[in-house]
Amino acid sequence: MEALTDEQKSKMGGWDELHFNRVMMRSPRLFDVVLPLITKVVAQSELPSHDRQVLILRTCALTGEVYEATHHVLISHAAGLSDDEIQAARTGVGLSPIHQLLARAAEELVSDFTVSDETWKALADHYSATELMEVVGLVGAYTTMAMLTRALGIQLEDEETMKSFIALRQYV
After folding, report:
1. 134 contacts 142 by C-beta, under 8 angstroms
2. pTM of structure
3. Which CB contacts under 8 angstroms, 24+ apart, belong to 86-90?
4. What pLDDT sits at residue 4?
5. Nearest Cα to 170, choosing from 90, 78, 86, 106?
6. Domain segments of the chain: what residues?
7. What percent of the chain has pLDDT over 70?
8. CATH C-level class of 6-168
9. HEC-encoded secondary structure of the chain
């Protein structure tokens, strides 16, 4: 990958070895839109971390997204999800009732770009209005991430580099 300017490195806030950031920096305007969106819907979400990770992993599986899915396996471990829970989130099989509901919401959003009345009502029994909005926003953001990472051919970092990013994260 091409060398970064000091200004670009500064903008990345210590995340300049992340391939996604380096590729996105080729379009600074897009970088300035996409990165804050991901930060808002993931790092500043009111959804519990387990629920967030189930939604992300399920969305990545549904969209065939590998780059973020691989990162979020590490993040999910840091959030306390077991290997079995991670696999269940990916497949949608063997989840707890609330996580089954979240997986269904992700499935509906990815396939139909909406949530059925039945699923929405069931979600509303467990989540605040803000959290309901975040369910939709999170699935939408990671569907966008799937398009970006797949279309732009963003490759995974080596395992050591990926693990080093876990320490930089202010969230799980």
Report:
1. no
2. 0.90
3. 86/53, 86/57, 89/53, 89/54, 89/57, 89/58, 89/61, 90/57, 90/58, 90/60, 90/61
4. 72
5. 78
6. 6-168
7. 92
8. mainly alpha
9. CCCCCHHHHHHHCCCCCCHHHHHHCCCHHHHHHHHHHHHHHHHCCCCCHHHHHHHHHHHHHHHCCCHHHHHHHHHHHHCCCCHHHHHHHHHCCCCCHHHHHHHHHHHHHHHHCCCCHHHHHHHHCCCCHHHHHHHHHHHHHHHHHHHHHHHCCCCCCCHHHHHHHHHHCCCC
pLDDT tens per residue, range 146-167: 999 999 999 988 888 777 776 6
Assess contact for 59 and 139: CB atoms under 8 A. yes
**What are 7's two structure tokens?**
């200004």
